[in-house]
Each structure stands twice: as structure tokens, then as C-alpha cells.
Specification:
It is a single chain. This protein has 235 residues and is an alpha+beta fold. The chain has two domains: 120 residues, Response regulator (Rossmann fold), CATH 3.40.50; 104 residues, LytTr DNA-binding domain (OB fold (Dihydrolipoamide Acetyltransferase, E2P)), CATH 2.40.50. It has seven helices and 17 strands. The protein has a seven-stranded antiparallel β-sheet with strand order 9-8-12-11-10-14-13. Strands 2-1-3-6-7 form a five-stranded parallel β-sheet, with helices on both faces. The protein has a three-stranded antiparallel β-sheet with strand order 15-16-17. Strand 8 and strand 9 form a beta hairpin.
Length: 235
């Protein structure tokens, strides 16, 4: 799969660092580089890349605002945010960024990002809606409505703000490999929508951790998942 990319960062050293990582992949072509949002938009309109590697803090422009401009374009452009700070990670998930990379970016971490880009572009196994059974009927639930998935009594249920619905034909492992990157396995029995996460906490007097979602639900974090979740949330 051929991928066309541009790199946007106001620091030339940072741009070159990402370009050097990209050069290890024969299927990724750098169509241009930009130091500002305005310059990037001009390149995007003329070169039509698949993906933008974007510093989330550009002079006079927030990366999230830039994505809102991209969403007005006719052709969809994937965004990978890059930052020296972790405070914008949840904002990145809110605007459906493919990934959020912390500077300096290691080759190993960059490889994970490339795999995610390829998966989204190929749309191989990436769910856009989840089938559920309700009153002997099949319905489809939008991902944005889902707070978390729970495995219980050999069945999987998804939870929205108001409903608990039985998932049709998918077990938790199959969902884990088929959902976009803003969903993450946090426990052997739970997958969480990272866009809905509001707090990462520990139980009083315990070394066990949990996530608090925007609906107030507390989801336990398995000890084997704690490090991964902290990295995803840049904690």
C-alpha cells in the first residue's frame, strides 16, 4: 500500500527527525513539509496526502483547530499528532487522530503508528459500527455512542450512555483487533473508549487502578494493562 504523507512542524530539526523515520518505509512517500498551518493547507490541497504528521502546537494555531479545517475538505486526511507534551493526548482522541506520538519518537513506536495508518487506509477489519441483538433483531451502534465493552458470562455487552446491549458475533479479542485506535483493552473483561476517559485513579488504600468515564462509570484496569494504558494516555 502506497502512503502519501506530509510533515508539519515549526521546528526544522523535528521535521527532519520524522522524515528520517519515514525513509525506512518504502511504501511511504513524503509529499512535502511545512512549518505553519497555512503552508500545510496549501500542500494538502495540491498534493492530496493520505496522512499528515502534525505538531499539535503550531505558532498561532492549535492542532485540534487544524483538524477541524481538514474535516471540511472533500478528501479525508488522516492525522498523527506529534508533541513534546502529553497534555493534549485526550484532545487528539476527541478528533479521531490515528495516533499521538511523543517527541523524541523511537523507531519502534513509529512502527506501531505506520501499522495503524495502514490498517485504517486498508479498512481491513476496522469496524465503523457494532452489531447488537435487541428483541430478536439486529441493530448497528455507532462507535461514538459506546463508552465501553464488557465480557460477562461468555457474552459481550456494549454500554452506551443509557443502554446495555449484547454484541452479536464478536468476542472481546475480536473486537480488540477490529476497533479503531481510540478503543483500548484495559482488563481481561473490558475494552474502553478512550474518548470517554476522564480520570486515571487508584482505589483508596490499594495498588489497583481504575478509569472513570464521562458517565461516572469506574472501569478496573488489569495489572497487565496498566503500563500500556498509562502510555496511551501519556501519564
Amino acid at each position: 500500500m502506497n502512503i502519501k504523507a506530509i510533515v508539519v512542524d515549526d521546528e526544522i530539526i523535528a521535521r527532519k527527525a520524522i522524515i528520517e523515520l519515514i525513509e525506512d518505509y518504502q511504501n511511504i512517500e513524503v509529499m512535502g513539509e511545512a512549518s505553519s498551518a497555512e503552508e500545510a493547507l496549501d500542500i494538502i490541497k495540491t498534493k492530496k496526502p493520505n496522512v499528515v504528521f502534525l505538531d499539535i502546537q503550531l505558532p498561532g494555531f492549535n492542532g485540534v483547530e487544524f483538524v477541524e479545517l481538514l474535516n471540511r475538505l472533500e478528501e479525508k486526511v488522516l492525522v498523527v499528532f506529534i508533541s513534546a507534551y502529553d497534555e493534549y493526548a485526550l484532545d487528539a482522541f476527541e478528533v479521531d487522530a490515528v495516533d499521538y506520538l511523543m517527541k523524541p519518537v523511537s523507531p519502534e513506536r513509529f512502527a506501531v503508528t505506520v501499522e495503524r495508518i495502514e490498517k485504517v487506509l486498508a479498512k481491513e477489519g476496522v469496524l465503523e459500527k457494532v452489531p447488537v441483538k435487541e428483541d430478536n433483531l439486529l441493530e448497528m451502534v455507532d462507535l461514538e455512542e459506546i463508552f465501553y465493552f464488557e465480557s460477562m458470562d461468555k457474552k459481550v455487552y456494549l454500554h452506551t450512555k443509557e443502554d446495555e446491549l449484547e454484541v452479536y458475533r464478536y468476542n472481546l479479542s475480536e473486537l480488540e483487533s477490529s476497533l479503531p485506535s481510540f478503543f483500548a483493552r484495559v482488563h481481561k473483561s473490558f475494552i474502553v473508549n478512550l474518548k470517554k476517559v476522564r480520570r486515571f485513579s487508584s482505589w483508596p488504600g490499594s495498588r489497583s487502578y481504575f478509569l472513570t468515564l464521562s458517565n461516572g462509570k469506574e472501569i478496573p484496569i488489569g495489572k497487565n494493562y496498566k503500563s500500556k494504558i498509562k502510555k496511551l494516555l501519556h501519564l
